[in-house]
Amino acid sequence: MESEVGSLKLNIVAFCCHYCAYAAADLAGSLRLQYPPSVRVVKLPCTGKLDVLLVLDAFEHGADGVMVAGCMEGDCHYQLGNLNAKRRVRYVSKLLKEIGLEPERVRMYNMSSAMAKQWAEAVTEMDETVRRLGPSPLRKADCAGHT
Ligand code: FES
Predict the structure, then answer these.
(1) Is the minimum distance from the CB of 47 to ligand 1 under 6 angstroms?
(2) The pLDDT value given to residue 140
(3) Does ligand 1 come within 6 angstroms of the Cβ of 55?
(4) Domains and CATH numbers, the chain
């Protein structure tokens, strides 16, 4: 889903662990909690499955921001998956800075499946951050090439 910034629409991709954030998002939906519609959820079996290239690919294909949401530290079902994800997110953040994008466009969150409110807050926070930064320059370049 996309939300509008002026005439432009925001795209935020959320890579969510099946055990926690995905379930929290589902619960937020059941509880009818309000959060921005800019987020598109991609379910992962664990955030440890997240690859740096997957995140870069999301940006290359029009994401204005990427959030990665995994289990609470110490609660990953695959032990170190969320810690590895955290390390990769930090790395992508550095890469973004090196290519001239704002490092805040990617962020890691940790939550449990019961944390629907925190899910809604995380999406809201990410939406506000990306809204402040504006659309990704990569996306604008892509749009300019197709008009
Ligand atoms: Fe949830 Fe690893 S199982 S982050």
Answers:
(1) yes
(2) 62
(3) no
(4) 8-136 (3.40.50)
